[in-house]
Amino acid sequence: MKKVLAVLAAMAVAVLALAGCGGTDDKKAATETKVLKVGATAVPHAEILEQIKDDLKAEGIDLQVVEFNDYVQPNLALNDKELDANYFQHAPYLENFIKEHPEVKLANAAGIHIEPMGIYSHKVKSLNEVKDGATVAIPNDPTNGGRALILLSKAGLITLKDNNDIAATVNDITANPKNLKFQELEAAQVPRSIDDVDLAVINSNFAMQVPLNPVKDSLYIEDATSPYVNIVAVRQGDEERPEIKALIKALQSEKVKKFIEEKYQGAVVATF
Fold first, then answer.
1. How many C-beta atoms surround the C-beta of residue 167 within 10 A?
2. What's the predicted TM-score (pTM) here?
3. How far is the first Cα of the chain from the last one, in angstroms, to the nearest whole number?
């Protein structure tokens, strides 16, 4: 009888031990860190994302920033599920990208900041010094190209058919008193052309990489009314994912706003 009781007691201990192990595994699974891959251009997007890694880590999210140096691959990678989100583009660019790539199913999850586009030069110190026949480098993608032309129009260098047409091209120029010649380049290449042209119209994220200070170095810059808000993009249907909502909340925090104000000194402006 004693032997039977001893066997039963040993079995009970074994069962309890197994149950205890299972409980630990279940708890571990419940608190397992979730990876969130976000594509971004280096400046300022990746820099801003770095500021919230610890905040998301505290919520069980491992934020992994994947850097890109162009405006096409981050959207394709997101659509192909290589990323969970991206943070590099403004809303008009995403809208146009979707029109040109109908197979891409992406959505605007939230607006974060504006990067004012500016006109720069290493050859003249003011727009009044621009000579007849000067060469101007502008981005070659539809929305940023139109944005650059609108800025040149507001600066008084050209006249467009419609000063609010973000899809404007050089063919929409109705007056060009200085006979400006245009070089249309990939946006990331425009700042690298600044020594070869008279004027370069550059997106702030690429200007800061050269480095150029958009506030101090530009000859003319967009004002705060710019509609080109930089956004977090996700796949359609992922807007309410807990990890995405946590990402947006962290990016739209007072901590990030303060970082943007102190780090970029007006070259990047928070919109939340």
1. 15
2. 0.75
3. 75
Instruction: Write down the H helix ranges in 161-266.
Output: 204-207, 214-217, 242-251, 254-264
pLDDT tens by residue, 72-124: 999 999 999 999 999 999 999 999 999 999 999 999 999 999 999 999 999 99
pLDDT in tens, 190-203: 999 999 999 999 99
DSSP letter for 77, please. Answer: H
DSSP code for 221? E
User: What residues does 221 pair with on adjacent strands?
Assistant: 118
- pLDDT tens digits, 13-29: 444 344 444 454 444 44
Helix (H) or strand (E) holding 266: none
Please give the angle made by the CA atoms of 54, 58 and 61, to the nearest 5 degrees: 85
- For residue 51, the tally of other CB atoms under 10 A from its CB is 17
Helix axes 142-154, 91-100, angle to 10 degrees: 140
Domains of the chain: 34-115+228-270 (3.40.190.10), 118-221 (3.40.190.10)
CB distance 90 to 108 below 8 Å: no
Cis omega (within 30 of 0) for bond into 211 = yes
